[in-house]
């Protein structure tokens, strides 16, 4: 925990920052600067035969379902104990600082449950469609798998992601400040096929997806979205959904707040107006400075964060070539550009987006610099195909006040110190 504030001019020496040797923003690795750190001769790791080289290893089927190397045991979801009263209605966080590319491995997708994990035998699972439809329908999992299906990569972000950071820098690590997000490839049936099968009546304007868990979560979703890109998904990253993520069936609501992605999906009611249930009234609304609340803030706006270096991932190699890596996403479509600043937002450099650029999916960006070893104030600012620019936290507070929890897409600052350690700070 820390509450460090770094003021606009001191204590960071701006001239030192500017000397950090950043070239054009594209590849800035100085030629020949990256000599190996290991000993070139006489290193016992080269001259001595190691155990893994001497003895046969485990054969096939020693690990029928593979797990990561024992040396990766620290790469796990983590929670913040004081945040919630119980683990059944709680959240843990994706270790973003340990991941690369744009896909979150299934076992590391953050979890947010309101009534714990429902453990459902797919043979006993049903999906009902009722309400303002021509014919009520009940599907088994087998029925659903006879509809045409699609594969789509989408991020899911909880609207409360970064919520603890509204009033100032608080949690020391991007896992905690930004880890209520994951991005996987879903396989599922477009919801519109199921609604067409049931026949939505002309006054059917909203749907109410409902979960089969102990929380029986519900949210009102406008019919336009339901008929647009929503999926009823049964696979993630090629395999069955994990129980934590709604096995055997979850609703996918691309680009919209995670709360609407009902897990353990058992029923979809069609209605003529929104239901105004708990999760869209007392929760997932934002109290403005004037005492009014914003409601139905569905879209997750453009956002980004630098994942390395970051407080849990300090620079351990000293000055010289440094890979700055991060993720960006937008519920409005593709991310078209990410800018990175190493001097707290004074100067910006266009980062390199690498890997697939898919709408409503995570994007990976890099800025390769030659670090001169001085203090850095790292920031990233994403821009999406609608032209939205990620705001500063101050801009957000001016427009939304200080009471908000949800939809904090403000620019994050990491203070990289001369010893390579990194701290969550805010520049005022
Ligand atoms: N049935 C049900 N669906 C649910 C929830 C829940 O508690 N029960 N939590 C919601 C919230 S608030 C979020 S952010 C996402 C989290 O999805 P994840 O656990 O796959 O990360 O699921 C949503 N769907
Ligand atoms: Mo959420």
UniProtKB/TrEMBL annotation:
SUPFAM superfamilies in the record: E set domains, Oxidoreductase molybdopterin-binding domain
Lineage: Bacteria, Pseudomonadati, Pseudomonadota, Alphaproteobacteria, Rhodobacterales
Oxidoreductase molybdopterin-binding domain ranges (all copies): 114-275
Protein known as: Probable sulfite oxidase molybdopterin subunit
Domain Moybdenum cofactor oxidoreductase dimerisation as annotated: residue spans: 296-412
Pfam families xrefs: Mo-co_dimer, Oxidored_molyb
Top-rank lineage group of the source organism: Bacteria
A biological process term (GO) from this entry: sulfur compound metabolic process
GO molecular function annotation: heme binding; molybdenum ion binding; molybdopterin cofactor binding; sulfite oxidase activity
InterPro entries: Ig_E-set, MoCF_OxRdtse_dimer, OxRdtase_Mopterin-bd_dom, OxRdtase_Mopterin-bd_sf, Sulfite_DH_SoxC, TAT_signal
CDD domains reported for this sequence: bact_SoxC_Moco
Organism: Polymorphum gilvum (strain LMG 25793 / CGMCC 1.9160 / SL003B-26A1)
């Amino acid at each position: 925990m820390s509450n460090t504030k770094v003021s606009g001019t001191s204590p960071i020496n701006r001239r030192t920052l500017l000397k950090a040797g950043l070239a054009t923003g594209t590849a800035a690795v100085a030629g020949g600067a990256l000599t190996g750190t290991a000993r070139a001769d006489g290193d016992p790791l080269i001259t001595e035969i190691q155990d893994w080289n001497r003895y046969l290893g485990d054969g096939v089927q020693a690990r029928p379902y593979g797990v990561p190397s024992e040396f990766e045991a620290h790469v796990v979801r983590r929670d913040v104990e004081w945040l919630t009263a119980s683990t059944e209605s709680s959240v843990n966080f994706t270790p973003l600082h340990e991941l690369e590319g744009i896909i979150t491995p299934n076992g590391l997708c953050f979890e947010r449950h309101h009534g714990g994990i429902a453990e459902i035998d797919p043979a006993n699972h049903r999906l009902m469609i009722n309400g303002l439809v021509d014919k009520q329908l009940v599907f088994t999992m087998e029925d659903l798998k006879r509809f045409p299906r699609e594969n789509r990569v989408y991020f899911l972000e909880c609207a409360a992601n970064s919520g603890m950071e509204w009033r100032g820098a608080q949690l020391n690590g991007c896992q905690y400040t930004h880890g209520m997000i994951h991005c996987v490839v879903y396989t599922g049936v477009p919801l519109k096929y199921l609604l067409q099968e049931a026949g939505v009546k002309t006054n059917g304007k909203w749907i109410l997806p409902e979960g089969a868990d102990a929380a029986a979560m519900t949210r009102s979703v406008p019919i336009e979205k339901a008929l647009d890109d929503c999926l009823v998904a049964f696979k993630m990253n090629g395999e069955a959904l994990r129980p934590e993520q709604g096995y055997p069936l979850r609703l996918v609501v691309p680009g919209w707040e995670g709360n609407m992605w009902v897990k353990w999906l058992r029923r979809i009611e069609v209605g003529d107006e929104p239901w105004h249930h708990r999760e869209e009234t007392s929760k997932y609304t934002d109290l403005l400075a004037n005492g009014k609340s914003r409601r139905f803030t569905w879209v997750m706006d453009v956002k980004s964060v630098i994942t390395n270096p970051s407080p849990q991932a300090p620079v351990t190699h000293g000055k010289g070539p440094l890979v700055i890596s991060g993720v960006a996403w937008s519920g409005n479509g593709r991310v078209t550009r990410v800018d990175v600043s190493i001097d707290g937002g004074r100067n910006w450099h266009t980062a390199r987006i690498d890997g697939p650029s898919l709408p409503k999916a995570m994007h990976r960006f890099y800025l390769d610099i030659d670090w001169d070893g001085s203090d850095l104030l790292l920031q990233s600012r994403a821009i999406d195909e609608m032209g939205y620019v990620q705001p500063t936290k101050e801009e957000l507070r001016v427009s939304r006040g200080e009471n908000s929890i949800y939809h904090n897409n403000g620019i994050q600052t990491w203070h990289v110190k001369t010893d390579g350690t990194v701290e969550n700070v805010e520049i005022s």
